[in-house]
């Protein structure tokens, strides 16, 4: 597996904070690239620092034009006020099988977002929870029972500004066609797709609602 | 979406460091549960602290009985010697569509590993790279060209001890069958599967090798 720092064809790799980008500077291209990555999934990895040690927590997210909303009770309990978090969303599209082990890698799309999160309350929290729910499970905000006062109090939503982020995409075939080791090379794609819904036996007296049935494969 | 701290049926959530488990204390069950999660994937999210800010980097991994091996150039450049990292591996198995928005969640399997990584060199590095390559792309270590001295020098492999880890699994239907809001409920499964290999046009004179063709769906 090649070193991400050594080659632009590198496998899955992160972005140094020092090379971070302000979305305002990236303009529409950068912002649209970020939204594309965010639209393609609903689980992120939220990184916080607890007693000088990193903690990486998988959690669900939603977003609008200005903020990422994450469901973050564990993280919020550990959060120092004003501390920056890192949220990473990654889609793995396939294995890059090169002629050399060194050029092996992963086709992927990834976004890293840095920001100081705000714990939402009141109407803001409700609106963010709706945004998050509709991103993760479109149609359910109107179909399921909305949270009551007690449930809302037991829910923690963090808003992370979408100002500082970087997007990385690696796609296509391996880059070592000129390698003297002349063997098969290519891509082994990895696909993620929704499967037919499985009805809870205790809800079998209801048909599967159309907004679930028509959910497009991701 | 319910608060992970409020319910065992909670959606995707992390594990507090304060509730961490030593694998030795968990015995065979804990260790086997960890290996099951690690076997089911090949991309992790590596969390490190850089200038008091968390950085979460997606990268490939392999493992043996005692260590997780991660491909970590970006992280290793930023790593403070002796600093603890957090590596999280997450598999999303489906959406839990409950009667109430509050009980919505995700069926998932996740492992969080804490440890002080060691940058490997020499024979240890080569052995770990082989382990990692064979985990990510079984059969390729013998089929592709192995790294030469220069490539090996340009590769960074971190070894994280598999001593401190926690595994979380959420499976099955929503837990709110007694909710007064009587609507359809169930699971929308999410499946990840390998697709037929795509041959690099510049390698079309070679057949797809059997070890790629027979790769089982994950």
Question: What would a concise description of this structure say?
Answer:
Chain A has 218 residues and is α+β, with helices and mostly antiparallel strands. Helix content of chain A is 23%, strand content 33%.
Could you walk me through the main structural features you see in this protein, from its secondary elements to its overall organization?
- The structure is a homodimer of 218-residue chains.
- Chain A has one domain: Electron Transport, Fmn-binding Protein, Chain A (Pnp Oxidase, Chain A, Roll).
- The first copy, chain A, has 6 helices and 10 strands, in the order H-E-E-E-H-E-E-E-H-H-H-E-E-E-E-H.
- The first copy, chain A, has helices at residues 23-39, 73-78, 122-136, 140-143, 149-153, 210-213; strands at residues 43-50, 53-63, 67-71, 85-97, 105-115, 118-119, 157-161, 164-170, 186-194, 198-199.
- Residues 1-15 of chain A have low confidence and may be disordered.
- In chain A, strands 1, 2, 3, 4, 5, 6, 7, 8 and 9 form a 9-stranded antiparallel sheet that branches.
- Chain A is of the alpha+beta class and 218 residues long.
- In chain A, a hairpin with a 3-residue loop joins strand 2 and strand 3 (67-71).
- The first copy, chain A, is 23% helix and 33% strand.
- At the A-B interface, strand 1, strand 2, helix 2, strand 4 and strand 5 of A face strand 1, strand 2, helix 2, strand 4 and strand 5 of B.
- Strand 9 (186-194) of chain A pairs antiparallel with strand 10 of chain B.
